[in-house]
Amino acid sequence: MHADLSPVIAxxxxxxxxxxxxxxxxxxxxxxxxxxxxxxxxxxxxxxPTTMDAALLGMAGPGGSGRLDWVTGAxxxxxxxxxxxxxxxxxxxxxxxxxxxxxxxxxxxxRAVAALADGGHTTGAPAEFRRxxxxxxxxxxxxxxLRHPDLLAPVAGLHQDQLLTRLNPGRTLIA
Length: 175
Fold this sequence. Notes:
This protein is an all-alpha fold. Helices cover 59% and strands 0% of the residues. It has helices spanning 6-19, 26-47, 51-60, 66-72, 93-104, 106-115, 130-133, 137-142, 149-167. The protein starts with 5 loop residues before the first helix and ends in an 8-residue tail after the last helix. The mean pLDDT is 89.
């Protein structure tokens, strides 16, 4: 049985690309979306490593984008139409925070993808995360905002300690 995290991955990647949009045209938007989706996929697979974890998420729900919107200042622009933003209920704050960490720290992204070998989601092929792990000039140019450490710091900082604990079990974190 394979865990279906696709609604959470899609919504969280969409939130990231709306909060930190691509700079450029349609190609830049596509490249930015791929990078966000890869980072969110790695983060979701780390956060929910088993089918049981994913099933519990499906029952309880991911929590939505409320706090993320507030942290980034996007809550003021949402308006009053709940139907237009229903997808935001599928955004997972922890996954978004972890993805922000991965997008801004290449070494951490490498460690996170390597840690996926312990879970049941992958076949162990890191090549499927190439745009996250080894972005070329086009990738970096398209996702200038999405990969900017200072801009993503408020989001990344929300749950960075949990990610570091997940990647370094048993080690004490020194800030």
